[in-house]
Hints:
- Chain A is mostly helical and 473 residues long.
- Chain A has two domains: 32-234, MFS general substrate transporter like domains (Growth Hormone, Chain: A); 263-468, Growth Hormone, Chain: A, CATH 1.20.1250.20.
- Helix content of chain A is 73%, strand content 0%.
- Helices cover 64% and strands 8% of the residues of chain B.
- Chain B is built from one helix and two strands, in the order ββα.
- In chain B, strands 1-2 form a two-stranded antiparallel ribbon.
- In chain B, a hairpin with a 4-residue loop joins strand 1 (6-7) and strand 2 (12-13).
- The N and C termini of chain B lie far apart (60 Å).
Amino acid sequence: MNPVSQKLMRAWAGMGPGFLPFADAATPDVPLGRLLRLSLFQVSVGMALVLIVGTLNRVMIVELGVPAFVVAVMISLPVLYAPFRTLVGFRSDTHRSALGWKRVPFIWMGTLLQFGGLAIMPFALLVLSGGGNAAAWPSWIGPACAGLAFLLVGAGLHTIQTAGLALATDLVPPESQPNVVGLMYVMLLLGTVVSALIFGWLLSDYTPGRLIQAIQGSAVATLVLNVVALWKQETRRPPRNAGAVQAQPRPRFKDAWRAFIAGDRAVRRLAAIVLGTMAFTMQDVLLEPYGGQVLGMSVGQTTLLTATLASGGLLGFWFASRILTRGTDPFRLAVAAVFLGIPAFGLVIAAGPLLSLPLFVSGVFLLGLGSGMFSHGTLTASMSLAPRDQVGLALGAWGAAQATAAGVGVALGGIIRDIVATLASRDVFGNALSGPATGYTAVYFIEIALLVVTVLVMAPLIGDRRNVSFAGS
Amino acid sequence: MDDPNKVWPTGLTVGESEELHRNIIQGTQIFGMIAALAHLLAYIYSPWLK
Lengths: 473, 50
């Protein structure tokens, strides 16, 4: 080691423990303040998600004039990283650290990746749009750097969320897990809503300088939020005999994955999560245009739909936390959520021909409620069923299934609507179905079918006492 | 306090402080690369704001 490094090392060792990010003690009770602080990582994830899917989607198309298909490719890049959440979870389970950390190094690395992506993103987007002096440079630089920025943000947010949820599971006793899941979801929603409002306000008077300030501001916010979130959270468990541990062969992902899949109907659980999540997300980008095109709602009214969906979700998280802490089977709750989803889509479909706004809004609210309860139930089940040495892998698998299904679901919803709408406008389904509602209705019917399949896949999972890890305690 | 491997007041061992140091160095390297790329892109867009 060179002399400068040695000097710096001595400086770390010379600092008081109060200035280093280690948890003071392993207490069985984690106070709410500490949990609230930990949940700040979800705020940073929500902020990155809304920036990519909402704000930049619009800015790239409207203000920067980037072709829609390039925007679609860029926005879908973060989803590509979602399946790797399983690997991140596994690596954090088996991480070898002299400091005795498993999750903190991953949250830190994820934070750096998200920070890096957001730091280069505004310049990459400006170059991508061919603005300023960019035309004098090779044209591949813009798309390549913008793609890299989106990939970095995707890799960062998936890593942060996987390791962060695993850390939350490590910290709290099983009977508190439903409440922690509720808190994590509420913070994600809060991060999404508050950031959307702030980005909207910052970019209402768009200039390239404002874009740089807004996105790079979110990069700094990521760093601050996540450092505050992870500070002194993880209990250090340094290996007793570091030399012997280092000499052992590393566990292989393939073996760990096989063991995970072989145990406790894991494939059925993951399939149910994929199907249910797709069923609850395919309409995500279709509700607002459906309201506008079919029901004649104004832009302001359709924006309120997002608020309706969010309040349904919040009520769902609250209700799920309340009944799951009483020992209800989380899969029973998830199936109940699916049964709420079926009439919700029925209301949304019926609102079209009846031109009824109250029916539509009630349907959207029920959808939010069902979706919130379903997400809560499946995450709580994944937490309580996770083997103690595979918490990261189990939550990584949940996250991979859920995030990939959501990404694919939203894309499929849009594609199916477009195809069916084009066919309907050519009178393929007859004159009665040639209106604008047909494309949307087709997607909603597919979602109802997916919900029915989800119930069939999930039903055998209900009633297993292991679903409630603290049952009888 | 009697463990010669540990350095007080943090109580970190040599291995632990090495790991901490490695993370700091790695973080600085990543930060440096990000800053360099961001500056290059800023230069491509508007050469030193001219």
